[in-house]
Amino acid sequence: GHRCAVFEPVHGSAPDIAGEDKxxxxxxxxxxAMLLETSLDCPAGAAQVRAAVAAALDAGHxxxxxLLDDEERPVIGCRAMGDAVLAQLGDA
Length: 92
What we know:
Blueprint: H1 26-38, H2 43-58, H3 78-91
């Protein structure tokens, strides 16, 4: 049967940076993969979400918290990272 659960990133909603387009949305996006796999019995959908996140990162997209000290990449915000994952998901 189906299991009921709550899926959310453990770091919370980052109220200190609300409205500043600085948050990293990847944990929230990956929680959708957990929902698909665990409660909705859709492992293929979960795999697509995870692959889209990996592809966005492989393409070089980084929010400020993911940028290494020695990296010279542009930093993107929450909306742009979400868009990057969506673009990859559209390619799946």
